[in-house]
Amino acid sequence: MSNFFKRFFEAIANLFKSKKEKPKPLPVPEPVEPEPVEPTPVEPEPVDPVDDNPDDDNEDPEKPDDGGDYTVYPEDEEKLYFPKAIRSEHKLRTRGYYKQRYPQGAIVHFTAGRGRNKEEGGKKNADTHLEMGKRSISSAEDKGSYAYFIIDRSGNVHQNFPLDRWGYHGGESAWEGLSGSVSDELVGIEIQNAGRLRDYYQNSSDGTKYDCPEGKLAAWYTRPNSGDLFFDKETECRYSENNDNIQKGWYHAYSPEQEEALENLLIWLKRNNPDVFEFKYVLGHDEVAGKKGIGRNRKNDPGAALSMTMTEFREKIEKEYNERYSGNPAPTPEPTPEPPQDGEVTFEDMIKAYKSYNIEYPVLREITVAQWILETGHGRSDLFKKFKNCGGVKWRGDLGVEEAYEVQYEAHDGLEGYAGFKTFEGFFKYYWNFLERSYYEGWREEVKRSPEAFMGHIVRAGYCPDPGYLDKVLKLMPEAKKLLS
Hints:
This protein is of the alpha+beta class. The protein folds into two domains: 56-325, Peptidoglycan recognition protein-like (Lysozyme-like, 3-Layer(aba) Sandwich); 347-484, Lysozyme (Orthogonal Bundle). It is built from 15 helices and 16 strands. It has helices at residues 3-20, 118-121, 129-143, 233-236, 256-272, 285-288, 310-325, 347-355, 365-376, 382-387, 424-434, 443-447, 451-463, 469-475, 477-484; strands spanning 96-97, 105-110, 149-151, 157-158, 165-166, 186-191, 196-197, 200-202, 209-211, 216-217, 231-232, 237-240, 249-252, 282-284, 404-411, 414-421. The strands form six sheets. The chain has a five-stranded mixed sheet. Helix 5 (256-272) crosses helix 7 and helix 9 (365-376) packs across helix 15 (477-484). The chain starts with a helix and ends with a helix.
């Protein structure tokens, strides 16, 4: 073969060979590690190691929400609302009807949050307990929480739902004789309270713990560098060993006003529908979510926040109920005296006595008379005419007034212990001593501003839950001035 043909066939073979070869891939650059960026430290919200979500029992994603539409309930339906309850524009959600259109009992909780006023608890708190109670309702609405009562530190009861509908508040719970999680059978009563306390606090994001000052305790949320104040062991706290429902430890104690309000609310709930509501189903959250309920301790409220065990508390309210309504009234310190033989007292009698009675701030004479006109219905109430009680004040045996005694008197909210007086002077002394209690503290500073500021202060502190109370008193000022002239 000639050289020409040999080179020709080699060229053809090389051509086919080049078509079969794949092109070499382009080189891939080596990955470059980005420069590390230091994150901005964010101090997390503190978490309660015992109960890491105080609100989690108000959530139940498996059950549909009924939207909280209770416009079908008439506003004046007495059986659906506690007569003394403070009701606001904030509405808590509900899930549906109770099986018997009324709760069979109640679960006692604490909010495990802020409830003290600004002076007691720090700058994050509102000026008054009443405002703190309203804040809880507003906060619950914002969170989408469900229906329950709230009792603030001054004993005001807040209710924003009708009593024939239930809301989810019990979480994983159980009790003999009740089905399900008990939320759809027992109404929740949340009491404003910091809950279980501890002897350390945490300020920094790294979890460093710091000892509380001597004689002080901290809540799970306490952060002194943010303005929170500690709790005083002697005056605000209560310790208990393991006892019945109570789990060992220190607790923020319910105030006396809260315990009194809790008792009165439960007794009213029974009196309002005695065929359905049963005291044996007044239970602690630490019972239905504890060893006696689900077999382990999941919750610790009320614990030692309440001044007795839940077993003792049930016995107490049942005894009180029977004494009030079974025809065997509780004995009073003194027998109720008969009205004067020559007729019942008049408002003019009271005015005459008050004009000659020495009070610390005479500038308050007119506005207090205006208040008493309102409280007595212009002197027409039996509590005034028979027992010289001008201010609608309840009985307290610790005010040091010899002329005062307890009477069982049935007002619009049922039969309760009110104060009766031998003389009007006894009432005047009792009234001013009544305002010396801790949660009216600060009224003297308000006097320096005006009588109206004084009255506004004691109303906000809890004297009366009626949001229009102050305006009603002020409208009666001209009449009071005329009576005193």
